[in-house]
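User: I'm putting together a teaching handout on how multi-component assemblies are represented. Below are the sequence lines for each component of a complex, exactly as they appear in our records. Could you produce the 3D structure of the whole assembly as structure tokens, so the students can see both representations side by side? Please keep the chain order the same as the input.
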Amino acid sequence: MADLIDMEKEKVTIKCDSCEKSLMHYIVISVTNTPFKMRATCPFCNGSSGIVSVLGRVFTGPIDKGESSNPTVIEDVIIDDVATFLIKKAKNAS
Ligand SMILES: [Zn+2]
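Assistant: Of course. Below is the structure of the complete assembly, with chains in the same order as your input.
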């Protein structure tokens, strides 16, 4: 089972360049030769993250309310030269 990914260790958080709130996570699940570029929009200040480039396929996920008082939802993704993840605020219902 050497291929199992250590989720906590490998999880990377993408943050907003402007307000520095956490927007989403990604985990690299397999390595490729082609860079995958992505960024996330910020629902808190209408800014966005910087462009993140990884050599690999990624699994992405939102920020859940257990780790931040500002949880998020990934509403959609626009695939272009850069994949843009459209981030929304999650409802704070508990
Ligand atoms: Zn922001």
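A couple of points students might notice: Residues 7-10 form the longest helix (4 residues). DSSP finds one helix and five strands in the chain.
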